[in-house]
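User: Sequence in, structure out. Go.
Assistant: Echoing your sequence, followed by the structure tokens.
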Amino acid sequence: MNIFESFVLGLTQGVTEFIPVSSSGHLEIVQRLLGGGRAEDFHLFLELINFGTLFALLWYYRKRIIKILNDIFKKHDWYMAINLLLTSIPAGIIGILLSKFIESASFFSSLWTIATAIGVVGLLMIFVEKLPHFSKLKDEEKLTPMRALGIGLAQTFALIPGVSRSGSTILAGRVMGMDSKASANYSFMASIPIMIGVCLKSLLSSTSRAYIGANCGMLIFSNIVAFVFGMIALTFVIRFLEKKNSLQAFGYYRVALAAIIFIVLILQ
């Protein structure tokens, strides 16, 4: 992994982890444009640059995290913490049970599969935003536990490359009656436990630790890039949804990207 590849992958991870267009799908496309390389090395590198986007989330939502901890330890109010846990559990369980299968199955790394997932979720974003929303929760703290669990079930689909964790949860939040900004804030907060789990899992592997030792410089550089562009992407998405209050723009982008991928695949 050279410095240019590290920069491009860190940039892609930082931007697409939070803009709901699918980081896994974009990273697969970028990897192929960069020439591939050893699939195992590529997979390890991508696992280990999750730290940059995790730190971006923790820093961006530091005040909310402190408030939740304060509610738990001082006010004994577990409401928001339980909701976030309910949203995290389904993807965590399915991820543990099926992650190896999804990673090893060539079907899930196929550009046909990725393009289909990108396009289908894009169409759902356009369709959902055209529906009448009679109840718009502007405060994610008022989300009911059952709806939080529903968002968590939707998040399990993000294990399929091309779906997008933020895309699936923001979309589910909209269906559950939240406005776009509240849905995005809740989605990003709910992804923190999952991302912590992914990062800790990567450190438990002896293969990953050996890879870190051999590629420490490039990993630090790429994580810094992911952190910086992750912060920019987070700020952009929240402000965009606050003003436009719609996922349609991201939906149209996804549909256009899926169409381009299909055209390229057909013409090959």
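User: And one key feature?
Assistant: The CA atoms of residues 117 and 163 lie 5 Å apart.
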